[in-house]
């Protein structure tokens, strides 16, 4: 089921595009004043959005999670058919082991033939064997060494094939290193995909991002302090008027020298999720002490 704290994803993306670990210690105030006389608006959005695309061709054979689900770390979201590649990989691995055994046997044979050749060389110097007998031992050694080279070449080819098949099988399985929210699925079971086909949109909701867009003059005042600050005290006002006090990390202070876009002067605040807020809501943010210090040149 879709989490009730999630508004339609298209609205989230539209608003986030338009305007855009610390323990959660939120203090709630019912007063909208409380010194919050210059709040700035921004969209309360997931920390990051990932659009997952297929890197290979295949048919979707398995879907384990649906829109609205939390995808746990290292759990498989879905899988493309890779039966043929898995069968080939098994055969190549068996052949690889066989060649390794053959190579070890051949190395023993080469040692023996080399030892025999050196023995015949001494016998030839003493006149106890003919030149043809010595030459035959030399040719036997060269033949064994040539066989070793061929086996090593075949081993390298098999290793390349194994690596290619393993890569294909890995790309056929969609799993990730951290918990993610399944926002959208673009495929269904038994559907065929090709390289570049969209598979899913996943959201990192372990943190929240609020992009604030400010006037150029205020940006100039705040930018140096924002860039140097690791975390700042902020207050977030929900649409119902409640204030939530917390600390935020400052990310992506952006200045577009061309001044052609709405995003010319903006910065992102990253906070712990606030359960009372819905993703995609427009909230107001007061910068508190940082704003006061900046405006007074402290």
Record the SSE blueprint.
Blueprint: H1 9-19, E1 27-29, E2 40-53, E3 58-63, E4 70-71, E5 78-80, H2 83-125, H3 131-171, E6 173-174, E7 180-185, E8 192-193, E9 198-213, H4 216-228, E10 231-237, E11 243-255, E12 265-271, E13 282-286, H5 289-295
Antiparallel strand pairs: 1-11, 2-9, 2-13, 3-5, 3-8, 4-7, 5-6, 7-9, 9-12, 10-11, 10-13, 11-12
Explained architecture:
The chain contains five helices and 13 strands. It has a six-stranded antiparallel β-barrel with strand order 2-9-12-11-10-13. The chain has a four-stranded antiparallel beta sheet with strand order 6-5-3-8. Strand 10 and strand 11 form a beta hairpin. It has two domains: 187 residues, RNA polymerase II/Efflux pump adaptor protein, barrel-sandwich hybrid domain (OB fold (Dihydrolipoamide Acetyltransferase, E2P)), CATH 2.40.50; 85 residues. Helix content is 39%, strand content 29%. Helix 2 runs antiparallel to helix 3. With 298 residues, it is of the alpha+beta class.
Give a quick summary of the entry.
The protein is an alpha+beta fold and 298 residues long. It has five helices and 13 strands. The protein is 39% helix and 29% strand.
Quantity of strands, as a count? 13
Topology order in helix (H) and strand (E) letters = HEEEEEHHEEEEHEEEEH
Q: What's the rounded overall pLDDT mean?
A: 83
The fold-level CATH name of the largest domain is OB fold (Dihydrolipoamide Acetyltransferase, E2P)
The CATH superfamily of the largest domain is RNA polymerase II/Efflux pump adaptor protein, barrel-sandwich hybrid domain
| Amount of beta strand | 25-35%
Assign the CATH architecture of the largest domain. Beta Barrel
The profile of the biggest β sheet is: 6 strands, antiparallel, barrel
C-alpha geometry: elongated
Describe the strand arrangement of the main beta sheet, using strand numbers: 2-9-12-11-10-13
Helix residue percentage: 25-40%
Helix and strand content put the structural class at: alpha+beta
Q: How many H/I helical runs?
A: 5
Taking pLDDT < 50 over at least 5 consecutive residues as the criterion, the unreliable ranges are 1-37
Quaternary structure classification: single chain
CATH class of the largest domain: Mainly Beta
Termini, distance in Å?
50 Å
Radius of gyration: 33 Å
- Give the domain tally: 2
